[in-house]
Amino acid sequence: KPRVFSGIQPTADSFHLGNYLGALREWVTMQDTADAFYCVVDLHAITVAQDPDELRRRTRVSAAQLLALGIDPERSTLFVQSHVPEHAQLSWVLECLTGFGEAGRMTQFKDKSARQEAEHVGVGLFTYPILQAADILLYQTDAVPVGEDQRQHLELTRNLAQRFNSRFGPTFALPTAHIPKDTAKIQDLQDPTAKMSKSVPAGVVELMESPKRSAKKIRSAVTDLEKEIRYDVENKAGISNLLVIYSALTGRSIAELEAAYEGKGYGDLKKDLGEVVVDFVTPFQEQVQGYLDDVAELDKVLRKGAEHAREVGAATLRTVFDRIGFLAPT
Ligand code: AQP
């Protein structure tokens, strides 16, 4: 079975539709065919300031959302990143192999650091993609289900793996990005030329917010001045984004939706899509609450996941330490 790894940050009270359609939906599907490792990446979360109690709470809320979306801890390894110290240990080794200029070319760092005052930009935000490479390489990962925004980080991961392998001998599997064809980048509802992102929360549909609110956000999504419901990203970014979301949530093709809405107005499309979203999030939220009602069981699932992840990760790290010449502890 191929090995799959991916992670998500516990930095909000809710995942959003972009996270779900760009990545998490694939996580669930890939469990069937792969040996999957899925991680709530709390080490990544602290690259920007976090309130400790909130971070703890959001880590559990994140895990509960993953379970409610269908991650099955009997088939996949679900765990919290800080429970497996090997992530940080491998990250240090990889940092020492990364060029300063190479790290500086990461566009996500440029975007995220530009949004903050220079003195508040931590070194961790800069080295974040290297920790991400460590996350992936630690498990000898073959495929990484992520959204389009992670493509560059995956390239860095592959470069670091190749560099290590050629300098110290074959050690890491070379991972490929598994980016969905149709939903790689869900756009913001208020600015359909920008990625739906929790950092710029104008037009973000959160899976945990009140379903009514989600429907309202969809009804007030920015569209264009024409009338025709047609997929055309160049000229009709807003409508195209809504069609992508609609199609992904219902399994109806975009062509089928275009035909079904011929002669109808944007208002009809938005109202119907709002209902589709409500029907999706309502049972989801009930399930999340169910998992949060039994925190002891949730923590047990995460503990078991971390135990298994540590076994696999520690084996890789031992090889790495040996290859680079660290004296084995006796
Ligand atoms: N808009 C999106 N479309 C498709 N995929 C997306 N992802 C995020 N936004 C979109 C994918 O979700 C996964 C988890 O991402 P993360 O934990 O790194 O969260 P994030 O990237 O921090 O989420 P945001 O909302 O985009 O936050 P900021 O603005 O902080 O970067 C990843 O696989 C990601 O590709």
From TrEMBL:
Record key words, sorted: Aminoacyl-tRNA synthetase, ATP-binding, Cytoplasm, Ligase, Nucleotide-binding, Protein biosynthesis
Ribonucleoprotein is among the record's keywords: no
Entry EC no(s): 6.1.1.2
Subcellular locations according to the entry: Cytoplasm
Pfam families, alphabetized: tRNA-synt_1b
Domain of life, per lineage: Bacteria
Binding sites annotated in the UniProt record for L-tryptophan: D135
PROSITE patterns: AA_TRNA_LIGASE_I
InterPro entries with a match to the protein in the record: aa-tRNA-synth_I_CS, aa-tRNA-synth_Ic, Rossmann-like_a/b/a_fold, Trp-tRNA-ligase, Trp-tRNA-ligase_bac-type, Trp-tRNA_synthetase
Catalytic reactions of this protein: tRNA(Trp) + L-tryptophan + ATP = L-tryptophyl-tRNA(Trp) + AMP + diphosphate + H(+)
Motif ('KMSKS' region): 195-199
Record-stated family: Belongs to the class-I aminoacyl-tRNA synthetase family.
Quaternary organization: Homodimer.
Function: Catalyzes the attachment of tryptophan to tRNA(Trp).
Record protein name field: Tryptophan--tRNA ligase
Source species: Saccharopolyspora cebuensis
